[in-house]
Amino acid sequence: MAKWTTIQLLFLLVWVTEVGGAQSRDRTELLNVCMDAKHHKEKPSAEDKLHEQCSPWKKNACCTTNTSEEAHKDISYLYRFNWNHCGQMAPACKRHFIQDTCLYECSPNLGPWIQQVDQSWRKERILNVPLCKEDCESWWEDCRSSYTCKSNWHKGWNWTSGYNQCPVKAACHPFPFYFPTPADLCNEIWSHSYKVSNYSRGSGRCIQMWFDPAQGNPNDKVAKFYAQVVDGAGLRGPWAPLLSLALMLLWLLC
Ligand SMILES: *[C@@H]1O[C@H](CO)[C@@H](O)[C@H](O)[C@H]1NC(C)=O
Ligand SMILES: *[C@@H]1O[C@H](CO)[C@@H](O)[C@H](O)[C@H]1NC(C)=O
Ligand SMILES: *[C@@H]1O[C@H](CO)[C@@H](O)[C@H](O)[C@H]1NC(C)=O
């Protein structure tokens, strides 16, 4: 009798997790997708003319040529964001922000980290993307001599002039004042869109902001790996129906 009850409970558990799983984004939707945000295309596809720093994504991109060009401008049409809010940002620093914009707008590999949000300007965001540690470290290193007035660049600006300016109470200081470590910069600046990884570039376990497209996009396999992780966690995946079938047989035979 005790055996019966255990098996029935297991069967119920599998059924519940499967039904629950069907309501979240399923596995295929985590790969090769674009988020539902302000400028993203509906689906990734080739874009032959992507501009400069965004060109690594040209074989398969969520951004248009227009978005890739705008990503290189100050106070661009994309978000009217002013990188020079505490004097001119050093070009060596700015190129990391341009690359960050290219990754955000163009990457078809961010599916495992897409979350729904209730924001006027977008329906989805990214959360805790595992950025390769070297990409974060060089971003922080190259920005050490530039100035800023805030550690979260998503919120709290003065937008009265049509682009972001420092609010009066926020003083300009070199980056390390607001971002003491590389992790502080990468994790905090966009409200945890990134979570710096302990993994290195080339490991296949972290997202590269910078890559040489000659060998393809290294983030394809990173997304595949994390899509399986996300999937396995919910007792979903291709083996879930098999498991419930096995349990059902056991149930009938007992
Ligand atoms: C991109 O498109 C917007 C809106 O149509 C336009 O205002 C802007 O000038 C375009 N940018 C480029 C570089 O073509
Ligand atoms: C916002 O910026 C405007 C124009 O630059 C300025 O007059 C105003 O005092 C600022 N307000 C705050 C709260 O910083
Ligand atoms: C990160 O890697 C270092 C060196 O390989 C290791 O000592 C540390 O425990 C790792 N940290 C995490 C959070 O995995």
Q: Which overall shape is indicated by the principal axes computed on the Cα atoms?
A: globular
Indicate the percent of residues in helices.
25-40%
- Quickly count the domains: 2
Q: Write down the overall mean pLDDT.
A: 86
Would you count the extended β strands for me? 4
- Along the chain, the helix and strand elements come as HHHEEHEEHHHH
- Ranges where pLDDT stays below 50 over 5 or more residues in a row are 19-27
- Biggest β-sheet: count, sense, barrel? 2 strands, antiparallel
Oligomer: single chain
Give the end-to-end Cα distance, rounded to a whole number of Å: 10 Å
* SS summary, helix count: 8
- As a whole number of angstroms, the C-alpha radius of gyration is 22 Å
Pfam family, one: Folate_rec
Domain Folate receptor-like: 33-208
Protein name: Folate receptor alpha
Organism: Prolemur simus (Greater bamboo lemur)
